[in-house]
Specification:
Keywords: DNA-binding, Transcription, Transcription regulation
Order of helices and strands: EHEEEEEEEEHHEHHHHHHHHH
GO molecular function, one term: DNA-binding transcription factor activity
Largest sheet: 5 strands, antiparallel
Radius of gyration: 21 Å
Structural class: alpha+beta
Number of domains: 2
Number of helices: 12
Pfam families: HTH_18
Organism: Pedobacter antarcticus 4BY
CATH topology of the largest domain: Jelly Rolls
Number of strands: 10
CATH architecture of the largest domain: Sandwich
Protein name: HTH araC/xylS-type domain-containing protein
Helix content: 40-55%
CATH superfamily of the largest domain: Regulatory protein AraC
């Protein structure tokens, strides 16, 4: 099997910035504003990234899938996406105004927050909803910080104290988010039932395990519940069983790999841990109505 095979395609920070037409940005952080009228979906296929992203919606709304879960993110909401998350942008409203904040883990570490107030980073590992809802005044505070941060990012790298000012502004942004997350957490704990939390935990686990684990029993053991309870809970909350989610993620990965013509069907089959090419072809045809070969031609 080719050692260059990857899973769902990973889009680097530089590739994403190029796709949205952003240049001359700091290599470890980028802040930019865009509107729905200017915006085309830059990358239409599902992908992972090597950076963190915050999408801050000031007006309008956009639709996106993160780890197969659909979200409509509206005015005064912030969506956080981590590098391991599989995301697929679907639609932006014509009145959508978004501030995009993308940064690598190295930039977060450089800010030193983990050394001073590690609890301020709790929301990065939260299993709850990745969408944070703010009030009008709270969004205005966030927007002011990001306006200055965006301005500083456009200055020449040789500008006096630019990098230090940006790090401090970035720290302020993270602390503001942590503050709002902490305030909302108690409400989330009330709103989110144990069943909903189990669904979120499963959907966080699935993208990291599905290539080697397809047994509902194994996922249930990882989550300390019975297979029946896991599938019934997923069905009650989402309308899909655990098997449905596993199959959907597997087929998504298969389609991405099949879109790379340099990979043979046998290589795709091996990467997805099927016993042989025949088993993979039967599975793919059963669930899509097309053989892998016919899918490539279509």
């Amino acid at each position: 099997m080719s050692s260059s095979i990857t899973a769902v395609q990973t889009c680097t920070f530089a590739q994403l910035l190029e796709a949205v037409g952003v240049s001359d940005q700091n290599a470890e952080i980028s802040i930019c504003s865009t509107t729905g009228l200017e915006m085309e979906i830059p990358i239409r296929y599902p992908f992972r990234s090597d950076h963190f992203s915050f999408l801050v919606v000031q007006e309008g709304a956009f639709k996106i899938k993160v780890n197969l879960t659909p979200y409509t993110v509206t005015k005064n909401e912030i969506l956080m996406i981590t590098p391991n998350d599989v995301r697929q942008f679907e639609e932006f409203s014509s009145d959508c105004i978004i501030k995009f904040v993308g940064f690598k883990a190295e930039y977060l570490y450089a800010a030193g927050i983990h050394k001073k107030n590690v609890d301020a980073l709790t929301f990065f590992s939260s299993l709850l909803n990745p969408v944070l809802r703010l009030g009008n005044g709270e969004m205005e505070n966030i927007a002011r910080i990001l306006d200055v941060l965006e301005h500083k990012s456009t200055l020449p790298a040789t500008s006096d104290y630019r990098d230090d000012i940006m790090l401090n502004l970035f720290s302020g942004f993270i602390y503001e988010l942590a503050l709002h997350f902490r305030r909302s957490q108690s409400l989330e704990e009330i709103r989110v039932t144990r069943k909903e939390e189990l669904v979120m935990r499963f959907l966080k686990l699935l993208p990291t395990q599905f290539r080697s684990v397809r047994s509902v029993q194994v996922y249930a053991e990882m989550l300390n519940v019975s297979p029946k309870y896991l599938s019934q809970t997923l069905k009650d909350i989402s309308g899909k069983t655990a098997g449905d989610f596993i199959g959907e993620m597997l087929l998504l990965e298969a389609k991405i790999l099949l879109n790379h013509p340099e990979l043979s069907i046998a290589e795709v089959s091996n990467h997805l841990n099927f016993s042989d090419q025949f088993s993979f072809s039967n599975y793919f045809k059963k669930h899509t109505g097309k053989s892998p070969t016919l899918y490539r031609k279509s």
